[in-house]
C-alpha cells in the first residue's frame, strides 16, 4: 500500500470517527436537536463487499423500491470535508445510464467517470487512478450498457456505413477493435449486445495494461475490476463472467 493510499484511508477513518462522536452527542435539554449526520460506518473496505452493496442497490432499483439513501442534506453536509467513496465506476456517458441511480446510491458513494462507450483516454485513466489511489476505492466497475450508441456507431463504420465528424470519429474508432474481436452474428441485436460485452472486457484489460497504478492496486492491494452490463428495459446490471 502506497503512502498516499494509506493517508487517504487514514483521513477517511478519522472523518468517520469524528462524525460518529458527533452523532452520539446528547442533545441539549430544551433545544430541538438538528438532525445528526449519519455516521460514516458500514463503508465496504474490500471489493467483494463493495460489489455486494452495488448489487443490492441495483436489486432495489429493479424492484422499484429504491431507498434513495445518502441523498439527504445531512449526509451531503457531512461530506463537505472529504469524500470516502467505495467504488470507482467507469460507465458510458449515455443519459440513460446514471450509475448513482441504477445502483441506488447517493453523494460520496461512487467515484464516477463517464465517457461514451467507456473509451479510455488520458483523462479517463487518470480519473480512475485517482479513484483507486487517492479516494481508496477497493472496486473498479467497467459498466457497459445495452444498445450503446458508441458501439452501434463502431459496428456501422466497420460495415463501411455511416459518417462521423470531429472527435466523435476517433472515439468510435477506439471501439472498432471490440467489434472486430466479436464473433459475427446474423442477428443484429445479438451482435450489438455481444460487442457491448466485448468492449467492457476489453476496456478492463486495457486499463490494467495501461495503468501501473491500477495494476499495482490489483496485484498487491486487493483492488478488483468487475465488468458488467446494464439492461435498459429491466434496469438490471449483469456482472460479466
Ligand atoms: Zn453507450
TrEMBL record:
GO molecular function, one term: carbonate dehydratase activity
Keyword Transit peptide recorded: no
Organism: Actinoalloteichus hoggarensis
Record family assignment: Belongs to the beta-class carbonic anhydrase family.
The enzyme's E.C. designation: 4.2.1.1
Keywords for the protein's UniProt record, in alphabetical order: Lyase, Metal-binding, Signal, Zinc
Pfam families: Pro_CA
Single biological process term from Gene Ontology: carbon utilization
The record's free-text note on cofactor binding: Binds 1 zinc ion per subunit.
Catalytic activity: hydrogencarbonate + H(+) = CO2 + H2O
Annotated signal peptide: 1-23
Enzyme class: lyase
Highest taxon in the source lineage: Bacteria
Function: Catalyzes the reversible hydration of carbon dioxide to form bicarbonate.
Cofactor requirements of the protein: Zn(2+)
UniProt-annotated binding residues for Zn(2+): 92, 94, 145, 148
Protein name in UniProt: carbonic anhydrase
SUPFAM superfamilies: beta-carbonic anhydrase, cab
Keyword Heme: no
Amino acid at each position: 500500500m502506497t503512502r498516499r493510499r494509506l493517508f487517504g484511508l487514514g483521513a477517511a477513518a478519522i472523518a468517520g470517527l469524528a462524525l460518529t462522536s458527533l452523532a452520539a452527542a446528547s442533545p441539549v435539554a430544551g433545544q430541538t436537536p438538528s438532525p445528526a449526520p449519519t455516521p460514516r460506518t458500514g463503508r465496504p473496505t474490500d471489493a467483494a463487499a463493495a460489489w455486494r452493496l452495488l448489487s443490492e442497490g441495483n436489486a432495489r432499483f429493479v424492484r422499484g423500491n429504491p431507498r434513495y439513501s445518502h441523498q439527504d442534506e445531512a449526509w451531503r453536509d457531512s461530506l463537505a470535508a472529504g469524500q470516502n467513496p467505495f467504488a470507482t465506476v467507469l460507465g458510458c456517458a449515455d443519459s440513460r445510464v446514471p450509475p448513482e441511480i441504477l445502483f441506488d446510491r447517493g453523494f460520496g458513494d461512487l467515484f464516477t467517470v463517464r465517457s461514451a462507450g467507456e473509451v479510455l483516454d488520458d483523462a479517463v485513466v487518470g480519473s480512475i487512478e485517482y479513484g483507486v489511489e487517492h479516494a481508496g476505492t477497493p472496486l473498479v466497475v467497467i459498466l457497459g450498457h445495452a444498445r450503446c450508441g458508441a458501439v452501434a456507431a463502431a459496428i456501422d463504420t466497420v460495415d463501411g456505413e455511416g459518417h462521423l465528424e470531429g472527435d466523435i470519429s476517433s472515439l468510435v474508432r477506439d471501439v472498432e477493435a471490440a467489434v472486430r474481436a466479436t464473433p459475427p452474428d446474423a442477428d443484429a441485436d445479438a451482435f450489438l449486445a455481444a460487442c457491448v460485452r466485448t468492449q467492457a472486457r476489453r476496456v478492463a484489460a486495457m486499463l490494467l495494461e495501461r495503468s501501473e497504478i491500477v495494476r499495482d492496486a490489483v496485484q498487491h492491494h486487493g483492488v478488483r475490476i468487475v465488468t458488467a452490463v446494464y439492461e435498459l428495459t429491466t434496469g438490471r446490471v449483469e456482472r460479466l463472467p
